């Protein structure tokens, strides 16, 4: 499996989420690109996701997932008890996405944002698409 996670590259919460995924994905199943990058924009277009999407996006098995579906499908592949979070997929997406949207709407206010994307450390740099 080589799934791709597209994330908001200037969001502190999103950056922390990517670091969390890397830490809990020692097999290196996930690759990453910021939504703002050329490759991120190309993938959004390729998978028919609106360019102005305000969500984490998971591309897996030739399909794009957004919002809570993306987050839960990512959890399914992480080490430890995070796999259990995937059981929340049984909750209807509109209900799950209410919580997701609340966090997404307030992420800059609660967690701040960066002026630019942070460069990954050399040991994980190969997992970032460019």
Automatic annotation (TrEMBL):
Any one GO molecular-function label of the UniProt entry: protein-disulfide reductase activity
Q: What is this protein's record name?
A: Thiol-disulfide oxidoreductase DCC family protein
């Amino acid at each position: 499996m080589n799934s791709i996670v597209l994330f908001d590259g200037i969001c502190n919460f999103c950056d922390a989420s990517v670091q969390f995924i890397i830490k809990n994905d020692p097999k290196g199943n996930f690759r990453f690109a910021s939504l703002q990058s050329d490759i991120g924009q190309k993938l959004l277009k390729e998978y028919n996701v609106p360019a102005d999407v305000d969500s984490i996006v998971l591309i897996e098995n030739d399909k794009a997932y957004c919002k809570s579906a993306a987050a839960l499908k990512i959890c399914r592949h992480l080490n430890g008890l995070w796999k259990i979070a995937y059981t929340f997929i049984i909750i209807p997406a509109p209900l799950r996405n209410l919580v997701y949207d609340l966090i997404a709407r307030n992420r800059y206010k609660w967690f701040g944002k960066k002026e630019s994307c942070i460069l990954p450390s050399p040991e994980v740099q190969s997992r970032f698409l460019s």
